[in-house]
Amino acid sequence: MTSTSRRTVLTALGAATVGGPLLAGVAATPAHATGDLDLYTSNTDLYTKLAGKEGTDFARRYKRHEYADHALDQRYSYNRTTVLALHGGGIETGTSELCLAIAGYHPATLAPLQDGHGPHDYWLFEGLRSSDNRELHVTAKNCDDHVAVSMAAGSLNVLSLHGCTAEQAGTAIPQAVVIGGLNTQFKSCLKSEFTKAGIVWRDGSEVPDLAGVNTDNPCNRTMLAKGGQLELTTELRAAMFTVNTRAGRAGSTTPVFDRFVGACRAAIAKLETGPDQTIL
C-alpha cells in the first residue's frame, strides 16, 4: 500500500546494514498499528461481505504445479517455493506483476520465462476497482484464504511481496526495498542478489513495522516456519513500468523490473540448494 496510514515507521531509523547500499534514516512518524484501518478482519470476512463482487471488485489467482511420483525405486523433484502477492492489483500496485514474473511467468502473457530457474507456485489477491482499492486491504497476519494458507504450509519457502512508501521504509533514497521475514538465509541471498543488481535495500530488522516477523504472516507459515518478505517503495515500483495502470503494467515492464525479478529468482535458486531444502 502506498498510503502512510497502513504502515508507519515506529522508531527513528539509522543507516542500513553494513554490506548493503546505505540508506539515510528519517525521523519517526506517528505510529499506527499495522492494519488498524482495515475494513475487513480477514479474507473470509471480506469474501462474505463482498459476496458476488469477485471479478468486479476483487480477484484471486493462483497456480499449483502438478508433480507426480509413481516410481518405487527413486524420488522426483517437487516445488519448494511459493510467491505471494496478498495486496495485488490496485491495492499495492505492481506486486501482481512482480509475483507472476518471480514465479517464472511473463505478467502479460503468462508465457514461462526462459532463464533456467524454472517455475514456482504463486497466489495473488487483487483489487480491481477503479478507485478505493485500499478498502480491500487485509493485513498479512489476518490472511486466512484457504488456498493461500495451504500453499504456504505446503512450501519450504515463501516470498511475499508488498508495497510501502519511502517514508515508511525510512530511506532518503526513494527507490528501495525492505527485506524481511524470519528466514535469515533467504534474506542474505536476497541482499546479495539485490546488491549485484544495483537495487538499494534495507534490512527489515531496522524497520520494525515492515519486518515481516509475525508468525501468523503467511510468509512465515511454511514447512520451515520461516520465509521472506519484500516491501517495495512506491518509487521503486513506479520505475518498473512505463504505463503504471492496472491495464498497462503487465505489458510495459522496464529494465528495473527485469533486474528486480532476476535478483529474486537467483536468490530463490541459491536458497533452494541449501541443506534445509531436502525432505527425506
Written description of the protein model:
The protein has 280 residues and is of the alpha/beta class. It is built from 7 helices and 7 strands. Helix 5 runs antiparallel to helix 7. The N terminus is likely disordered.
What attributes characterize this protein structure?
280 residues; alpha/beta; Aminopeptidase; 22% helix; disordered N terminus
How are the elements arranged and paired?
Elements: H1 43-49, E1 58-63, E2 81-89, H2 95-102, E3 121-127, H3 146-153, E4 157-164, H4 166-169, E5 177-180, H5 184-197, E6 201-203, E7 228-233, H6 234-238, H7 255-271
Q: State the share of residues found in helices, binned by percent.
A: 10-25%
Mean pLDDT: 89
The CATH class = Alpha Beta
Give the total of beta strands: 7
Q: How many DSSP H or I helices?
A: 7
CATH level 4 superfamily: Poly-gamma-glutamate hydrolase, zinc-binding motif
Distance between the termini: 40 Å
Radius of gyration (CA) equals 18 Å
Taking the sheet with the most strands, its summary is: 7 strands, mixed
| Low-confidence region ranges | 1-33
- Structural class of the helices, strands and pairings? alpha/beta
CATH topology: Aminopeptidase
Give the topology string: H per helix, E per strand.
HEEHEHEHEHEEHH
Q: What is the general shape?
A: globular
State the domain count.
Answer: 1
CATH architecture: 3-Layer(aba) Sandwich
Q: Which percent range describes the beta-strand content?
A: 15-25%
Q: Write out the strand line-up for the largest beta sheet, numbering strands in chain order.
A: 1-3-2-4-7-5-6
